[in-house]
Design brief:
It is a single chain. With 349 residues, the protein is of the alpha/beta class. The chain has helices at residues 40-48, 98-101, 147-150, 153-166, 181-192, 205-213, 222-225, 230-233, 249-258, 278-283, 297-306, 325-332, and strands spanning 2-10, 13-20, 28-37, 50-51, 54-55, 60-61, 65-73, 85-88, 91-92, 112-113, 130-134, 138-140, 173-177, 197-202, 218-221, 239-244, 259-267, 287-290, 316-321, 340-344. The protein has 2 domains: 2-152 and 312-344, Alpha-Beta Complex (Quinone Oxidoreductase, Chain A, domain 1); 158-290, Rossmann fold (3-Layer(aba) Sandwich), CATH 3.40.50. The chain contains 12 helices and 20 strands.
Length: 349
């Protein structure tokens, strides 16, 4: 049996190819992929050949946000059945290293993560019609949920972990800088947690419209209306918590400037080295806290999607069949036109 795959061979060089598919062994599942979300890391691999120190060194099948249908199960599999619609958890910690033993699975020293160029040989991804995965990676979703919604479980899990790092947001004044998929999900989760105010900033109107539809109380295009942020900087700042989702130096500065003394900055966006206004960070006693991936939050994300605890549809912009992957990546890279773009596969029929 053969499957089509979406493989990156080099910068701006995506090819649709075929390769054999194995029969699922004990503890494994064969999945027909329905939808796969194009993530910022996929875009960095496609546009730039990587990001920061992580570089694509060999052809890699992209994709780590995916959902589909179970079509065959191996011996001993009991958590899913043939016909189940599932979301695939791309994260596979070793469960044995020092950090896994401490419960810090997202910091596993031998992490395997689908579609990641961090390891070499690279961990191949989920953008393909058929794939065999470990049964434990598969979490059933409601039959009422679309494949595109289910494929958002991974970015939602990232944001649930970020929210956990922020603590209680009830009645807090929250700023979100950057309205990409992670930013709009952080805004939605802040609103769901009872934040009194959720202000989202970005340079493009299309993602800001999605943020408004997903719970933001105010959106500001800082490219056009940046002066509106000045009021939030008065009297040493306004916001209790900021989720910085852009990794852009001006946005980091804006977040620190508008946080009140002893406010909390959750750094969600990643990039290379960027300047940080250290004196202001120290002078206002700002807590600068990183957040990285997820673990138990993936199951929480699937449950939230299945129950429609938050509405993901405003962030789902366009879907393209896999054979139009280049067009899909080009649109996904144009933030004036999209928030979350999906590829569709064999199961999406």
């Amino acid at each position: 049996m053969q499957t089509r795959i979406c493989r990156l061979h080099g910068q701006n060089d995506i090819r649709i190819e075929t390769q054999p598919v194995a029969v699922p062994a004990a503890g494994e599942v064969l999945v027909a992929i329905g939808a796969g979300g194009i993530c910022g890391s996929d875009l960095h691999y496609y546009q730039d050949g990587g990001f920061g120190p992580i570089r694509v060194k060999e052809p890699i099948i992209l994709g780590h946000e995916a959902s589909g249908t179970v079509i065959e199960i191996g011996e001993g599999v009991t958590n899913v059945a043939v016909g189940d619609r599932i979301a695939i958890n791309p994260s596979r910690p070793c469960n044995d290293c020092a950090y896994c033993r401490e419960g810090l699975f997202q910091h596993c020293l031998d992490m395997r993560f689908n579609g990641s160029a961090l390891r070499f040989p690279h961990e191949q991804g989920l953008f393909r019609d058929l794939i065999v995965v470990e049964a434990g990676q598969c979490l059933p979703v409601s039959a009422e949920v679309s494949f595109a919604e289910a494929a958002c479980a991974e970015p939602l899990a990232v944001c649930l972990h970020a929210r956990r790092r922020a603590g209680d947001l009830c009645s807090k004044r929250v700023l979100v800088t950057g309205a990409g998929p992670i930013g709009v999900l952080c805004a939605a989760l802040a609103a769901e947690a009872g934040a009194a105010e959720v202000v989202v900033t970005d340079l493009q109107d299309v993602p800001l419209q999605a943020a408004s539809a997903m719970g933001a109380t105010r959106v500001i295009n800082v490219g056009r209306d940046g002066a509106e942020m000045e009021a939030y900087a008065a009297d040493k700042g306004h916001f209790d918590v900021a989720f910085e989702c852009s990794a852009a130096a001006p946005a980091i500065r804006s977040a620190i400037t508008t946080l009140r003394p002893q406010g909390l900055l959750i750094q969600v966006g990643v990039s290379g080295d960027v300047p940080v206004p250290l004196n202001m960070l120290v002078g206002k006693e700002i807590t600068f806290r990183g957040t990285h991936r997820f673990h138990e939050e993936f199951a929480e994300a699937v449950a939230m999607i299945s129950s429609r605890g938050i509405d993901l549809t405003p962030m789902i912009s366009q879907s393209y069949p896999m054979e139009e992957a280049r067009a899909a990546f080009d649109v996904a890279g144009d933030r004036s036109r999209s928030v979350k773009v999906h590829l569709t596969f064999a199961a999406d029929t």
